[in-house]
Protein backbone atom coordinates (compact mmCIF):
# COMPACT_ATOMS: atom_id res chain seq x y z
CA UNK A 1 0.00 0.00 0.00
CA UNK A 2 2.98 2.27 0.26
CA UNK A 3 5.49 3.67 -2.20
CA UNK A 4 8.46 1.64 -3.41
CA UNK A 5 12.18 2.05 -3.61
CA UNK A 6 13.79 -0.29 -6.08
CA UNK A 7 14.51 -0.41 -9.81
CA UNK A 8 11.84 0.36 -12.43
CA UNK A 9 9.20 -1.81 -10.83
CA UNK A 10 5.67 -0.44 -11.46
CA UNK A 11 3.84 0.86 -8.41
CA UNK A 12 0.25 -0.39 -8.57
CA UNK A 13 -1.26 2.74 -6.98
CA UNK A 14 0.55 5.32 -9.14
CA UNK A 15 2.10 8.64 -8.10
CA UNK A 16 -0.73 11.15 -8.51
CA UNK A 17 -1.44 13.96 -6.05
CA UNK A 18 -4.54 12.06 -4.94
CA UNK A 19 -2.38 9.02 -4.18
CA UNK A 20 0.09 11.16 -2.26
CA UNK A 21 -2.76 12.56 -0.18
CA UNK A 22 -4.09 9.04 0.40
CA UNK A 23 -0.74 7.91 1.77
CA UNK A 24 -0.78 10.73 4.33
CA UNK A 25 -4.27 9.78 5.49
CA UNK A 26 -3.38 6.08 5.50
CA UNK A 27 -0.48 6.70 7.87
CA UNK A 28 -2.72 8.52 10.34
CA UNK A 29 -5.49 5.92 10.13
CA UNK A 30 -3.16 3.00 10.87
CA UNK A 31 -0.74 4.74 13.25
CA UNK A 32 -2.10 3.42 16.54
CA UNK A 33 -2.21 -0.17 15.22
CA UNK A 34 1.16 -0.03 13.47
CA UNK A 35 3.12 1.52 16.31
CA UNK A 36 1.52 -0.18 19.31
CA UNK A 37 4.57 -2.43 19.86
CA UNK A 38 7.33 -0.61 17.95
CA UNK A 39 10.24 0.55 20.12
CA UNK A 40 13.19 2.48 18.71
CA UNK A 41 14.10 3.92 22.10
CA UNK A 42 17.73 2.77 21.87
CA UNK A 43 18.26 3.90 18.25
CA UNK A 44 19.56 7.19 16.85
CA UNK A 45 20.23 6.51 13.13
CA UNK A 46 17.28 4.89 11.33
CA UNK A 47 16.96 3.88 7.69
CA UNK A 48 13.42 4.02 6.28
CA UNK A 49 13.08 2.05 3.06
CA UNK A 50 10.31 3.30 0.77
CA UNK A 51 9.67 6.53 2.63
CA UNK A 52 7.28 7.74 -0.07
CA UNK A 53 5.75 11.09 0.82
CA UNK A 54 7.18 11.09 4.34
CA UNK A 55 3.95 10.05 6.02
CA UNK A 56 5.61 7.40 8.19
CA UNK A 57 8.79 9.48 8.55
CA UNK A 58 6.86 12.19 10.36
CA UNK A 59 5.38 9.66 12.78
CA UNK A 60 8.78 8.11 13.48
CA UNK A 61 10.31 11.52 14.26
CA UNK A 62 7.36 12.52 16.43
CA UNK A 63 7.27 9.32 18.44
CA UNK A 64 11.03 8.89 18.88
CA UNK A 65 12.63 12.29 19.54
CA UNK A 66 16.22 10.92 19.57
CA UNK A 67 15.98 9.55 16.02
CA UNK A 68 17.52 10.88 12.84
CA UNK A 69 15.78 9.24 9.87
CA UNK A 70 17.30 8.68 6.43
CA UNK A 71 14.48 7.96 4.01
CA UNK A 72 15.02 6.43 0.57
CA UNK A 73 12.64 6.06 -2.33
CA UNK A 74 13.03 5.59 -6.07
CA UNK A 75 10.45 8.24 -7.02
CA UNK A 76 11.58 11.89 -7.31
CA UNK A 77 7.93 12.99 -7.11
CA UNK A 78 7.41 11.15 -3.83
CA UNK A 79 10.65 12.51 -2.37
CA UNK A 80 9.69 16.06 -3.33
CA UNK A 81 6.34 15.58 -1.58
CA UNK A 82 8.15 14.15 1.46
CA UNK A 83 10.39 17.22 1.64
CA UNK A 84 7.37 19.52 1.57
CA UNK A 85 5.51 17.51 4.19
CA UNK A 86 8.43 17.18 6.59
CA UNK A 87 9.63 20.77 6.19
CA UNK A 88 6.22 21.89 7.44
CA UNK A 89 6.72 20.10 10.78
CA UNK A 90 8.89 22.00 13.27
CA UNK A 91 9.88 18.85 15.18
CA UNK A 92 11.31 17.30 12.00
CA UNK A 93 13.81 20.09 11.36
CA UNK A 94 17.41 18.87 10.90
CA UNK A 95 16.39 15.32 11.86
CA UNK A 96 15.95 13.71 8.44
CA UNK A 97 17.64 13.18 5.10
CA UNK A 98 15.93 12.07 1.89
CA UNK A 99 17.67 10.28 -0.94
CA UNK A 100 16.70 8.69 -4.23
CA UNK A 101 18.05 5.16 -4.09
CA UNK A 102 17.52 1.53 -5.04
CA UNK A 103 16.68 -0.54 -1.97
CA UNK A 104 18.39 -3.56 -3.54
CA UNK A 105 21.66 -1.64 -3.93
CA UNK A 106 21.89 0.83 -1.06
CA UNK A 107 24.38 3.72 -1.41
CA UNK A 108 25.55 3.47 2.21
CA UNK A 109 28.56 1.98 3.93
CA UNK A 110 28.31 -1.12 6.08
CA UNK A 111 26.99 -0.51 9.60
CA UNK A 112 25.74 3.00 8.80
CA UNK A 113 22.50 2.68 10.80
CA UNK A 114 21.33 1.23 14.10
CA UNK A 115 17.68 0.70 13.12
CA UNK A 116 15.50 0.15 10.04
CA UNK A 117 11.82 0.54 9.21
CA UNK A 118 9.90 -0.90 6.25
CA UNK A 119 6.13 -0.56 5.94
CA UNK A 120 3.94 -1.68 3.01
CA UNK A 121 7.08 -1.81 0.83
CA UNK A 122 8.27 -5.38 0.22
CA UNK A 123 4.89 -6.30 -1.30
CA UNK A 124 5.83 -4.20 -4.33
CA UNK A 125 9.39 -5.48 -4.78
CA UNK A 126 10.50 -8.26 -7.12
CA UNK A 127 13.43 -9.25 -4.85
CA UNK A 128 12.42 -8.77 -1.19
CA UNK A 129 15.14 -11.16 0.01
CA UNK A 130 17.81 -9.06 -1.71
CA UNK A 131 16.39 -5.90 -0.16
CA UNK A 132 16.45 -7.38 3.34
CA UNK A 133 20.02 -8.58 2.77
CA UNK A 134 21.09 -5.07 1.72
CA UNK A 135 19.36 -3.54 4.72
CA UNK A 136 21.16 -5.96 7.03
CA UNK A 137 24.49 -4.98 5.45
CA UNK A 138 24.05 -1.33 6.40
CA UNK A 139 22.84 -2.09 9.95
CA UNK A 140 25.20 -2.32 12.89
CA UNK A 141 25.29 -5.39 15.18
CA UNK A 142 22.36 -5.33 17.59
CA UNK A 143 20.31 -3.05 15.35
CA UNK A 144 16.54 -3.60 15.31
CA UNK A 145 14.33 -3.78 12.23
CA UNK A 146 10.55 -3.64 12.00
CA UNK A 147 8.81 -4.78 8.81
CA UNK A 148 5.04 -4.48 8.28
CA UNK A 149 3.41 -6.16 5.30
CA UNK A 150 0.05 -7.02 3.78
CA UNK A 151 -1.78 -10.34 3.75
CA UNK A 152 -4.38 -9.61 1.09
CA UNK A 153 -6.05 -13.00 1.32
CA UNK A 154 -7.42 -11.90 4.71
CA UNK A 155 -9.71 -9.20 3.29
CA UNK A 156 -13.39 -9.71 4.15
CA UNK A 157 -16.39 -7.45 3.56
CA UNK A 158 -20.04 -8.09 4.38
CA UNK A 159 -22.63 -7.88 2.78
CA UNK A 160 -21.37 -10.15 0.01
CA UNK A 161 -20.01 -8.12 -2.90
CA UNK A 162 -19.18 -10.28 -5.93
CA UNK A 163 -17.89 -7.49 -8.19
CA UNK A 164 -15.58 -6.30 -5.43
CA UNK A 165 -14.23 -9.82 -4.90
CA UNK A 166 -13.61 -10.26 -8.63
CA UNK A 167 -11.82 -6.92 -8.70
CA UNK A 168 -9.77 -7.80 -5.58
CA UNK A 169 -8.59 -11.02 -7.19
CA UNK A 170 -7.64 -9.08 -10.33
CA UNK A 171 -5.82 -6.55 -8.15
CA UNK A 172 -3.78 -9.30 -6.49
CA UNK A 173 -3.17 -11.13 -9.78
CA UNK A 174 -1.85 -7.93 -11.36
CA UNK A 175 0.50 -7.28 -8.48
CA UNK A 176 1.75 -10.87 -8.57
CA UNK A 177 2.17 -10.87 -12.36
CA UNK A 178 4.12 -7.60 -12.10
CA UNK A 179 6.62 -9.19 -9.73
CA UNK A 180 5.14 -8.19 -6.37
CA UNK A 181 3.62 -10.31 -3.63
CA UNK A 182 0.26 -9.34 -2.08
CA UNK A 183 0.58 -12.16 0.47
CA UNK A 184 4.14 -11.49 1.64
CA UNK A 185 3.14 -10.69 5.22
CA UNK A 186 2.82 -14.38 6.08
CA UNK A 187 6.33 -15.00 4.73
CA UNK A 188 8.22 -12.36 6.73
CA UNK A 189 9.52 -14.81 9.31
CA UNK A 190 11.13 -17.02 6.67
CA UNK A 191 12.51 -14.03 4.75
CA UNK A 192 14.15 -12.50 7.81
CA UNK A 193 15.64 -15.81 8.95
CA UNK A 194 17.03 -16.47 5.47
CA UNK A 195 18.40 -12.93 5.41
CA UNK A 196 20.57 -13.57 8.45
CA UNK A 197 18.50 -11.80 11.08
CA UNK A 198 18.01 -13.21 14.59
CA UNK A 199 15.37 -13.03 17.31
CA UNK A 200 12.68 -12.95 14.63
CA UNK A 201 9.19 -12.31 15.97
CA UNK A 202 5.94 -11.83 14.08
CA UNK A 203 2.58 -10.44 15.14
CA UNK A 204 -0.68 -10.61 13.22
CA UNK A 205 -2.48 -7.28 13.43
CA UNK A 206 -5.96 -6.62 12.12
CA UNK A 207 -8.63 -4.04 11.48
CA UNK A 208 -12.01 -5.51 12.41
CA UNK A 209 -14.88 -3.03 12.21
CA UNK A 210 -18.58 -3.69 12.79
CA UNK A 211 -21.48 -2.06 14.65
CA UNK A 212 -19.23 -1.32 17.61
CA UNK A 213 -17.46 1.44 15.61
CA UNK A 214 -19.86 2.56 12.87
CA UNK A 215 -18.10 5.86 12.19
CA UNK A 216 -14.67 4.32 11.80
CA UNK A 217 -16.15 1.49 9.74
CA UNK A 218 -17.64 3.95 7.25
CA UNK A 219 -14.38 5.89 7.11
CA UNK A 220 -12.38 2.71 6.47
CA UNK A 221 -14.69 1.53 3.67
CA UNK A 222 -14.42 4.93 2.00
CA UNK A 223 -10.64 4.78 2.30
CA UNK A 224 -10.56 1.20 0.97
CA UNK A 225 -12.47 2.33 -2.10
CA UNK A 226 -9.69 4.84 -2.78
CA UNK A 227 -7.07 2.09 -2.45
CA UNK A 228 -8.94 -0.14 -4.89
CA UNK A 229 -9.73 2.53 -7.46
CA UNK A 230 -6.15 3.82 -7.48
CA UNK A 231 -5.26 0.71 -9.51
CA UNK A 232 -8.32 0.65 -11.78
CA UNK A 233 -6.67 2.17 -14.86
CA UNK A 234 -3.74 -0.25 -14.68
CA UNK A 235 -6.04 -3.24 -14.21
CA UNK A 236 -8.27 -2.30 -17.13
CA UNK A 237 -5.27 -1.54 -19.35
CA UNK A 238 -3.85 -4.99 -18.57
CA UNK A 239 -7.19 -6.67 -19.31
CA UNK A 240 -7.55 -8.01 -15.79
CA UNK A 241 -10.84 -6.20 -15.18
CA UNK A 242 -13.41 -4.14 -17.08
CA UNK A 243 -15.60 -1.08 -16.68
CA UNK A 244 -18.66 -3.12 -15.67
CA UNK A 245 -16.79 -4.75 -12.78
CA UNK A 246 -15.37 -1.43 -11.60
CA UNK A 247 -18.80 0.23 -11.74
CA UNK A 248 -20.37 -2.77 -9.99
CA UNK A 249 -17.73 -2.57 -7.26
CA UNK A 250 -18.50 1.12 -6.71
CA UNK A 251 -22.20 0.33 -6.32
CA UNK A 252 -21.47 -2.49 -3.89
CA UNK A 253 -19.16 -0.36 -1.78
CA UNK A 254 -21.81 2.33 -1.59
CA UNK A 255 -24.33 -0.25 -0.40
CA UNK A 256 -21.94 -1.71 2.17
CA UNK A 257 -21.00 1.74 3.42
CA UNK A 258 -24.66 2.46 4.13
CA UNK A 259 -25.53 -0.97 5.53
CA UNK A 260 -26.18 -0.78 9.30
CA UNK A 261 -24.72 -4.28 9.79
CA UNK A 262 -21.66 -4.08 7.56
CA UNK A 263 -18.42 -5.81 8.56
CA UNK A 264 -14.88 -4.90 7.44
CA UNK A 265 -11.88 -7.10 8.20
CA UNK A 266 -8.27 -6.97 7.07
CA UNK A 267 -5.19 -8.53 8.66
CA UNK A 268 -1.51 -7.80 8.16
CA UNK A 269 1.75 -8.96 9.71
CA UNK A 270 4.44 -7.01 11.57
CA UNK A 271 7.84 -8.56 12.14
CA UNK A 272 10.66 -7.55 14.46
CA UNK A 273 14.23 -8.80 14.24
CA UNK A 274 17.77 -7.87 15.18
CA UNK A 275 21.13 -8.04 13.43
CA UNK A 276 23.94 -10.35 14.50
From TrEMBL:
GO terms for biological process: methylation. Coiled coil: none annotated. It comes from the Bacteria. InterPro entries: Methyltransf_11 (IPR013216), SAM-dependent_MTases_sf (IPR029063). The keyword Transferase applies. One of its GO terms (molecular function) is methyltransferase activity. Keywords: Methyltransferase, Transferase. It holds the Pfam family Methyltransf_11. Residues 47-146 form the Methyltransferase type domain. This is Methyltransferase type 11. It comes from Dyella acidisoli.
